[in-house]
Amino acid sequence: MKIIILANHSAIIPAIDHFHSQGLLQAVVSSDKLHSNNLQIEDVCKTRKITFLKVSQPQLKTRLKDLFEALQPDLALMLGFSYRIPKEIFNIPLMGFYNIHFSLLPGYRGPDPVFWQLKNGESTGGISIHQVETDFDSGPIVMREQIPFIPGENWGICNSRYAPAVLNMLLQLINNLKANVELKAPEPTSLVSSYFPRPVAEDFIINWELQTAQQIEDLVNACNPLAGGAITFFRQQMVCILEVSPADHPGEASVPAGTIIHADMNGLFVQCMDRRILRLNILKLSEGIMSGFKLAAIGIKAGDQFENQFLYSQILT
């Protein structure tokens, strides 16, 4: 069997290693939108002397098509690739062209499903494998595995935790294809079909007046490390919150949301709109990444308040 992998997501690396070690992997392709946190895909390929190609959208029908026609793979696998695959390419592999998506499709279609599932407070996520068609995340689903989110799970932990599950599912898929097992659609999930776009700066901002403590904790987890933390503002400066945890301190009816109610050796404790308290464990400021305890030690005190300001010029820079 000859395999080509198209990926912009580091969770594919265990599969790259395995298929390369078995002599099955012909090439790895990434798009020109390969982000810095996934550059290790290219590094792995160079280290293992795997043919690696990086293509732009206009090159799909030239360089990518030429690669597929020259190598004639039996199977193509895709994870996090940035562009729609033209029909004349996804019809080449005789055993099929499949995409791996980090949600229980048809729910949470789109380019960053883990962010939106965490932000929306879902208790369960998962992985789906579907046949590639012209539209993103739209082909027939052939495999689906439900994976509960663990308490405090952030974006980075989730994406890394899915990597071994991806390999196991792909091995099962290949065994089924080799045995000519009919690939049937799995049982439907309770999730309705939905699509979420790529998150933008506004999606990372905490609104202390409208979001509950749980919603803020979910947002913080969804933004770490994707956006460098959930965004808030303090003394007219942007601050990113990377980790919080619920606290047992009682809230006060007269205290505005976003107010620091305790600041001591135990850290910073902030009241939310539902009068629940969050402890701010790790924050990123212009001065560096530090604990809530350190911020309390250098002078942030009870009564200080985080602000609801959309300082877009600071976000974009």
Describe this structure in words.
This protein is α/β, with parallel strands linked by helices. It has 2 domains: 3-178, Formyl transferase, N-terminal domain (Rossmann fold, 3-Layer(aba) Sandwich), CATH 3.40.50; 201-316, Formyl transferase, C-terminal domain (Methionyl-tRNA Fmet Formyltransferase, Chain A, domain 2, Roll). It has 9 helices and 13 strands. The protein has helices spanning 13-21, 40-47, 63-71, 87-90, 113-119, 155-178, 213-223, 292-297, 312-316; strands at residues 3-7, 25-31, 52-55, 75-79, 97-101, 124-131, 141-148, 230-234, 237-247, 260-264, 267-271, 277-285, 288-291. The strands form 2 sheets. A 7-stranded mixed β-sheet has the order 3-2-1-4-5-6-7, sandwiched between helices. Strands 8, 9, 10, 11, 12 and 13 form a 6-stranded antiparallel β-sheet that branches. The protein starts with a strand and ends with a helix.
Write the layout of secondary structure elements.
Layout (H helix, E strand, L loop, with lengths): L2 E5 L5 H9 L3 E7 L8 H8 L4 E4 L7 H9 L3 E5 L7 H4 L6 E5 L11 H7 L4 E8 L9 E8 L6 H24 L34 H11 L6 E5 L2 E11 L12 E5 L2 E5 L5 E9 L2 E4 H6 L14 H5 L1
Parallel strand pairs: 1-2, 1-4, 2-3, 4-5
Antiparallel strand pairs: 5-6, 6-7, 8-9, 9-12, 10-11, 11-12, 12-13
Helix pairs in contact: 1-6, 5-7
